């Protein structure tokens, strides 16, 4: 872009002044509410420490924020009546599960809708609707609701659907799984999307968001490691981590005590141990983690070990960022990384 955003203090001053010169150039994301607004929004202004600023609505959406209903930052980007109507439908029922068939049933051509949303926002309507479902679940939990009550993208309608999806990830037939397995897989619903957990009777081996690209490869390694003795079930470690994740997303506790089975070299395990020492609400750079394990020159190796983590959240690789303060890659998606860091700031604030 030709326009470069000034520093956040300048943008917050513009927000407080409702400076219209930034219209169409900058948006504010409010961490405490999960919404994004124009800088001219008439709503009560948030505190500086709760604000993040971005250039585009697409960036706000990818970070997991929803559009403000008062200043309607999305409506400013398009005059297409189809887009406007679907945005209003999404605002009325953010937890609705949209599909191309649903769009067509409302009287719209799915391909036309796809192109219109990409032109206006750089993303599709279905992806925008999916983000809103995830955020609806996070909001329910934030208000004290139970995980099972949260309206979010569960990903699997039943145990049989999970088994079929799991088989596709492994590249095997659904009926070929061991009936008396050493490792047992199940899914755990969270406000940020479903996770796959793999445990034996004593420890958790894997916990990943379903969308992680490396997940099929990680599952295949576990499958090979037990010579095919992998099946379905929810042993005690999976039950424990599911309960701990529930407390985490309700904002009650960031502590995880589930026993872990770590598949990595001595160096990699040292990096993972250092990650678990980072307090919730704080972040570290790769170089800081390298120094913490006494290997200050091994920054790239630390980055590889961080990326090799297959027990998400419990080993908090999302707390590692670039030396310049920018977020770096996260297997579960950068938008999840941002939401996790924002959620954990609440733990830090209560501890203080």
Automatic annotation (TrEMBL):
EC number(s) per entry: 2.1.1.63
Cofactor: how bound: Binds 1 zinc ion per subunit.
Residues reported to bind Zn(2+): 37, 41, 68, 71
Pfam families: Ada_Zn_binding, DNA_binding_1, HTH_18
Domain HTH araC/xylS-type: 107-180
An example molecular function term from Gene Ontology annotations: sequence-specific DNA binding
Catalytic activity: a 6-O-methyl-2'-deoxyguanosine in DNA + L-cysteinyl-[protein] = S-methyl-L-cysteinyl-[protein] + a 2'-deoxyguanosine in DNA; a 4-O-methyl-thymidine in DNA + L-cysteinyl-[protein] = a thymidine in DNA + S-methyl-L-cysteinyl-[protein]
Names of the cofactor(s): Zn(2+)
Record bears the keyword Transferase: yes
Active site positions, chain numbering: 37, 317
Keyword annotations of the record: Activator, DNA damage, DNA repair, DNA-binding, Metal-binding, Methyltransferase, Phosphoprotein, Transferase, Zinc
GO terms (BP aspect): DNA repair; methylation
Gene3D superfamilies the UniProt entry points to: DNA Methylphosphotriester Repair Domain, Homeodomain-like, Methylated DNA-protein cysteine methyltransferase domain, Winged helix-like DNA-binding domain superfamily/Winged helix DNA-binding domain
Family from the record: Belongs to the MGMT family.
PANTHER family from the UniProt entry: METHYLATED-DNA--PROTEIN-CYSTEINE METHYLTRANSFERASE
NCBIfam families: ogt (TIGR00589)
Protein name: methylated-DNA--[protein]-cysteine S-methyltransferase
């Amino acid at each position: 872009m030709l326009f470069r955003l000034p520093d956040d203090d300048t943008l917050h001053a513009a927000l407080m002044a409702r400076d219209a010169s930034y219209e169409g150039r900058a948006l504010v994301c409010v961490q405490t509410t999960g919404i994004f607004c124009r800088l001219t929004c008439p709503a009560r202004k948030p505190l500086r420490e709760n604000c993040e600023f971005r250039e585009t609505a697409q960036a706000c959406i990818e970070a997991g924020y929803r559009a403000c209903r008062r200043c309607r930052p999305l409506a400013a980007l398009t005059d297409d009546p189809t887009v406007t109507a679907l945005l209003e439908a999404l605002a009325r029922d953010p937890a609705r599960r949209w599909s191309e068939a649903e769009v067509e049933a409302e009287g719209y051509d799915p391909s036309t809708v796809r192109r219109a949303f990409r032109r206006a926002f750089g993303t599709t309507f279905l992806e925008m609707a999916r983000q809103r479902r995830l955020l609806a679940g996070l909001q329910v939990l934030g208000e004290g609701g139970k995980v099972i009550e949260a309206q979010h993208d569960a990903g699997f309608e039943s145990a049989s659907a999970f088994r079929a999806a799991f088989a596709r990830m492994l590249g095997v037939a659904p009926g070929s799984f061991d009936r008396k397995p050493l490792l047992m897989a199940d899914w755990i619903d969270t406000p940020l999307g479903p996770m796959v957990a793999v445990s034996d009777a004593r420890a958790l081996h894997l916990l990943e968001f379903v969308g992680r690209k490396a997940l099929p490869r990680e599952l295949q390694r576990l499958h090979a490691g037990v010579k095919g003795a992998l099946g379905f079930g929810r042993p005690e470690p999976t039950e424990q981590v599911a309960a701990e994740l529930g407390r985490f997303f309700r904002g009650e506790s960031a502590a995880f005590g589930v026993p872990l089975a770590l598949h990595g070299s001595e160096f990699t395990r040292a990096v993972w141990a250092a990650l678990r020492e980072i307090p919730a609400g704080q972040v570290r750079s790769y170089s800081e983690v390298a120094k913490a394990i006494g290997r200050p020159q091994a920054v790239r190796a630390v980055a590889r070990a961080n990326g090799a983590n297959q027990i998400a959240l419990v080993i908090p690789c999302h707390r590692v960022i670039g030396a310049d303060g920018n977020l770096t890659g996260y297997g579960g998606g950068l938008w999840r990384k941002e939401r996790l860091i924002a959620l954990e700031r609440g733990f830090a604030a209560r501890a203080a």
